Amino acid sequence: MRCKEYSKIYVVNFAVLFVTFFGCLLSLIGMLVGCFRPLRRAGGITYGLLLFCGFAMLVLNVTWALVTWNAFTNLGESAWYPYPDLAIGWFLHLYGSLTMLISARVFGWLVMPLVRAFDPEEEDLQQRKDKLRMMNFWNRDREQQQCMMQQQQLPVQVQGMHPGQYGAYGNNAYEYPMAQEGGANIYGAPMGPGLAPMEAPRV
Q1: For this UniProt entry, which segments traverse the membrane (predicted)?
Q2: For the whole model, what pTM was predicted?
Q3: Residues 20 and 107 occupy one common structural domain
């Protein structure tokens, strides 16, 4: 009789220990998924894991209390045995399971509307639009940089000389050679040493 009752207590102890450890591990996985993935995509997974773990630990907590109560009651019928009270560990386990269950329910109340309203196809389309918009922005920025570089290279160098550099035709590198050698200027007037420019005809 005693061995049978102690065997039941032993089994339920290990069951509670295993489910509690497994529930904490699944809760951690659910929280990591909720942190590293958008809630509109992974909120349902996080909510389901937290709710399942809290409910499972609560059920095992109550089951442990009922099984141990039954075992000690049966032991008291066949022999004198002091009936132990529930210790603080059971209350801490109950508090943890209720906290997880209530927190999961509040999380689902806040997040599940976003999950239900989420459309994967619309999300993919929006991501493609954003990618095209960013590509257009980069191309526009690249074109602006190219235009700025071209503007910085102006004015065009004449005969390999920089503006203001002393050359074969005087200080001004942009003077026409014909004007220095006695030819005509840009208006057709003869230019050269000792030749005055032609006056414009009077009307």
Answers
A1: 12-33, 45-67, 87-111
A2: 0.57
A3: yes
